[in-house]
Design a protein that fits this description.
2 domains, alpha/beta, 8-stranded parallel sheet, Rossmann fold, about 425 residues
Length: about 425
């Protein structure tokens, strides 16, 4: 590659959770000769294995030296002591953003001054924040300082980022400021597009697509190579219970449905101590084969659990698509989701899955019983759901869409540079 050609390759700075498989999937979909991709970490965790190959970068020369397919990860040069001192000063001055629910604001999270330094040193053509409360708030802090010197900013929101947080008094003014500051917006759900427009979005709105980009379906077994859903006996439960997840509601529904479920295996992921105690009581009093499963050490193991499941249940007070929904649709597991998600944009209720009010435990119990006993229902849903995700979550199709989004943003960058000149 000539020096002129090398210099012409744009740089996209992705601000996000570098340990997230969703960020890694998005980057894997787009890495290559189209652009240089550099990740700015929102915290000090190690990058996800799926992000390889990557190299640490701290200068423009480091970025320009990246080979096609290599990803740069910004080297955070502050020591723990320096980051703590900055964090302490910002906290005492009241300049820290409100913490993301379930994540305490702490010195392991990067701060706007570090992002400002990276933007000035690396001179990206686009800043793309993947997620709002960590990445988006961080970029908003940089935007407040840089003003018009901030590169064009593309915001992706995940799950509850805006749908839930715009309702919370501590977060609402920050969310309003943020959606009015971005230059481009990429949602997972049509629901959120309508919402951000009501909140005052001025930037360009792109057609929604999954935050994780897509998967290579050539690596996913055909449905006829998997056990038919009607011959599977596992109910897989996403057991989060906290600021959004309502795993205890699912356990309550399983208790109500127990007489119809004694021939099924119930396996619960992400259990709290309270959930473990309740599950032990249910196993004894209800005669259920219910047990926790440990955190899957690899993504492949997590997918194998879904492929073994007849039903996948995940309920919360707020969600987006939920990658688990898409994975269930891939592997033939019948999904049960909440009305507070965007599942209705992917499945037809009562036909391809069941969507229930997260607070209506009785209806949730009825949905689980129906999916557990109706073989025709789950077998008929599997091929429809697989066709849906193959059409909308395919890495090849969505790669072209992702590149088109970035090209649109790069056009904005060029126009801004010409105006400034």
């Amino acid at each position: 590659m000539t020096e002129r050609a090398r210099e012409a390759i744009p740089t996209i700075l992705i601000v996000g959770m570098q340990n997230s498989v969703h960020v890694a999937r998005w980057i894997s979909m787009l890495r290559g000769g189209f652009a240089r991709i550099v990740v700015f970490p929102v915290h000090t965790e190690q990058p996800a294995p799926e992000l390889r190959p990557w190299l640490p970068v701290s200068s423009l020369g480091d970025v320009e030296a990246l080979a096609p397919g290599e990803v740069g990860v910004v080297h955070l040069s502050k020591s723990d002591g320096e980051r703590y001192a900055t964090w302490k000063t910002e906290r005492e001055a009241g300049r820290l953003f409100p913490p993301s629910l379930g994540i305490e604001t702490n010195p392991s999270l990067t701060l706007p001054d570090e992002l400002i330094t990276a933007i000035r040193a690396l001179r990206p053509d686009i800043v793309h924040t993947m997620e709002v409360q960590l990445a988006g708030y961080l970029a908003l802090g940089a935007k407040r300082y840089l003003g018009n010197a901030m590169p064009p900013w593309l915001l992706s929101n995940w799950g509850s980022d805006i749908y839930l947080y715009h309702r919370l008094p501590e977060h609402r003014p920050i969310v309003l400021e943020l959606v009015q500051a971005v230059d481009g917006y990429l949602a997972e759900c049509r629901r959120d597009v309508q919402l951000v427009r009501r909140l005052g979005l001025k930037g360009h709105v792109f057609d929604p697509m999954p935050a994780s980009g897509g998967i290579d379906f050539s690596t996913v077994p055909a449905l006829d190579r998997l056990t038919p859903p009607s011959r599977r006996d596992t109910i897989l439960v996403k057991g989060y219970h906290g600021w959004s997840g309502r795993g205890m509601h699912i356990l309550s529904a399983l208790h109500l449905a127990a007489p119809a479920l004694r021939s099924h295996r119930i396996r619960v992921q992400f259990c709290s101590a309270a959930m473990l105690e309740m599950m032990r009581a249910m196993a004894e009093s209800d005669g259920l084969d219910i047990a926790p499963v440990p955190y899957a050490p690899t993504h492949e193991e997590a997918l194998s659990r879904i492929a073994d499941a007849r039903i996948v249940v995940g309920i919360g007070i707020s969600d987006g698509i939920g990658t688990t929904l898409l994975e269930a649709m891939c592997y033939g597991a019948f999904p049960i989701k909440a009305t507070t998600s965007c599942a209705c944009e992917w499945i037809r209720n009562g036909r391809d899955g069941i969507i229930v009010d997260p607070h209506d435990v009785k209806s949730l119990a009825e949905a689980i019983v129906q999916a557990a006993l109706d073989d025709a229902l789950v077998d008929a849903a599997a091929p429809r759901n697989r066709a849906c995700v193959e059409g909308r979550w395919d890495v090849g199709r969505n790669k072209a869409t992702g590149q088109s989004i970035y090209r649109h943003m790069l056009g904005d960058a060029r126009r801004a540079a010409m105006t400034a000149a």
